[in-house]
Amino acid sequence: MHQPASPIRTPFSLFHFPNPIAILNRDFQALTRRVTAHHILLPKSTEVALALKQKLRNTVSPSPESGVSPTYVVDAFSAAAEKYSQDEETAVKGGLLGTLVPQGYCRAKELDKACFECPLGVISGPIESEYGFHLLLVTERTNCQNLDGEYTKIARDRDGVGVVYLKFAENQEFGASGDLWKFTLQQVGFWMAITFAGGIVAEIAAKAANVVEELPWEW
User: Fold this and answer.
1) Distance between CA 152 and CA 168 in Å, rounded?
2) 200: number of CA atoms within 13 Å, CB side?
3) Are 213 and 205 in contact (CB under 8 A)?
4) pLDDT tens profile 170-183
5) How far apart are CA 100 and CA 110, in angstroms?
6) Greatest CA span in the chain, whole angstroms?
7) Which pLDDT tens digit goes with each residue over 80-120?
């Protein structure tokens, strides 16, 4: 009985080449990632931070028995930042760190990282940094689909106190022109290097498979 031939193994099967579309998309997402967030800087006391966090939650969503009306989360957080935050620069702005700022904008690296990890519209923390403990509220974030899905921003509901989640505006521009130019140059350089390296690998593999006898630099 004739047996089927074994699959031919070539040196190319030893190499894994990246998907250029996936790499371009990943780099595009990272470069255009932006966030709008508020924070409250507190002393390094877990007890104090957790107490204020719970107080804010009770203000936003009071129990029915309390007889207190709920408050829009951004209003409650901003008022607390003005009253309690030890960051004088942002306290006067309701704790606003920045509007649609890129990764790396915050001086505290722990806070900067949390801006792109904490849930959208949720009072988060405490987050410890060299400056103290931070409570954080992210109100808008772009290009974090793995975390936020199709939603990128919270807004005040029609009742004035509830929260609605908004989807990304498709007509939003791609960052600043400088970012786009930098992104283009980076990608051109990256793929020139990949093409050059791929050619060398292909020639070495061809020689290993006895397709060619000599490599160009051996002539």
Assistant:
1) 6
2) 7
3) no
4) 434 444 444 554 55
5) 18
6) 89
7) 999 999 999 999 999 999 999 998 899 999 999 999 999 99
